[in-house]
């Protein structure tokens, strides 16, 4: 049998309506009924003036004496704040139960012009009484629900972002080795997104270009080549033109290009490698 969670029990104790299912379960389940009764006693005890509120026993002076000693307070506040002398070991008598009053005629309200405005302190007290213990800011269950909703919202946003990110499929990769007098090394791989778009991810361990680095795909006989773009750091991602057959252009090349306005390859390669599936 599924029991009511503490949040539902606390809301029921505060007088909230959770539907017939919760009420039926509370009537038929002794365990949940006992927990609800405990929550209800706490709510009633926190609301002075409630008809069924229990009479709370006033603490004796030894309680304040222990607090005073533990907190090492000054002698100026050694007296019991409830007004009982520290030397007295007796507790104040419990208040007598209130006797019902005979019905009386309702007095006529005074004229509005003669009613004094409440002081700022009275307004604060009355505002607090109107809020009572059932205000949403005092409900632990509502706070728990809000926290759970926030967590679910964050999880939904994360899931949505993950769903919107294109899935990639690795097609080929290559190790890049230094060419001629260079010593840099690196790696390259081709990824295909869910929509068919291919990208070349390339990385080198250092930039040895005297001008700027340019990334190329080159045919095996070095007679044909396609520029993918300029790489301004030690890594970059470049779009592979649609329809370009990587089998015809398997060589990945990073060249050192002078700033001379000539779009052709400078014939100075820094690193080079061949893509393989």
CATH topology annotation of the domain at 168-274: Immunoglobulin-like
* SS-derived structural category: alpha+beta
Secondary-structure element string: HHHHHHEEEEEEEE
Shape: elongated
- In CATH's first tier, which class of the domain at 168-274 applies? Mainly Beta
- Strands side by side in the biggest sheet: 5-4-7-8-1-2-3-6
Distance between the termini: 57 Å
The CATH architecture name of the domain at 168-274 reads Sandwich
Largest sheet: 8 strands, antiparallel
**What number is the mean pLDDT?**
75
Give your account of this protein's structure.
- This protein is α+β, with helices and mostly antiparallel strands and about 280 residues long.
- About 30% of the residues lie in helices and about 20% in strands.
- Among the domains are: about 40 residues, no CATH class; about 110 residues, Immunoglobulin-like (Sandwich), CATH 2.60.40.
- It contains six helices and eight strands; from the N terminus they run H-H-H-H-H-H-E-E-E-E-E-E-E-E.
- Strands 5-4-7-8-1-2-3-6 form an eight-stranded antiparallel beta sheet, with no helix packed on it.
- Strand 1 and strand 2 form a beta hairpin.
- Helix 1 crosses helix 3, helix 1 crosses helix 6 and helix 2 packs across helix 3.
- About 15% of the residues have low confidence.
């Amino acid at each position: 049998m599924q029991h009511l969670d503490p949040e539902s029990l606390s809301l029921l104790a505060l007088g909230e309506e959770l539907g017939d299912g919760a009420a039926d379960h509370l009537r038929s389940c002794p365990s949940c009924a006992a927990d609800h009764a405990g929550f209800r006693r706490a709510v009633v005890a926190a609301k002075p003036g409630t008809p069924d509120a229990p009479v709370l026993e006033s603490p004796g002076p030894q309680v304040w004496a222990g607090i005073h000693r533990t907190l090492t307070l000054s002698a100026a506040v050694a007296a019991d704040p409830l007004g009982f002398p520290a030397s007295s070991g007796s507790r104040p008598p419990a208040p007598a139960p209130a006797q019902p009053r005979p019905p009386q005629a309702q007095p006529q309200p005074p004229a509005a012009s003669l009613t004094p405005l409440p002081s700022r302190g009275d307004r604060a007290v009355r505002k607090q009484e109107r809020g009572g213990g059932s205000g949403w800011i005092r409900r632990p269950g509502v706070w728990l629900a809000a926290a759970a909703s926030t967590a679910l919202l964050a999880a939904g946003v994360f899931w949505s972002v993950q769903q919107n990110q294109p899935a990639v499929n690795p097609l080929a990769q290559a190790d890049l080795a230094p060419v001629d007098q260079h010593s840099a090394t690196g790696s390259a791989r081709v990824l295909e997104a869910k929509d068919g778009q291919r990208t070349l991810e390339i990385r080198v361990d250092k930039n040895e270009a005297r001008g700027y680095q340019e990334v190329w795909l080159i045919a095996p006989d070095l007679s044909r080549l396609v520029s993918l773009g300029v790489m301004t750091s030690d890594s970059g991602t470049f779009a592979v033109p649609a329809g370009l057959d990587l089998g015809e252009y398997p060589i990945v090349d990073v060249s050192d290009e002078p700033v001379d306005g000539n779009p052709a390859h400078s014939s100075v390669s820094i690193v080079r490698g061949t893509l393989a599936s």
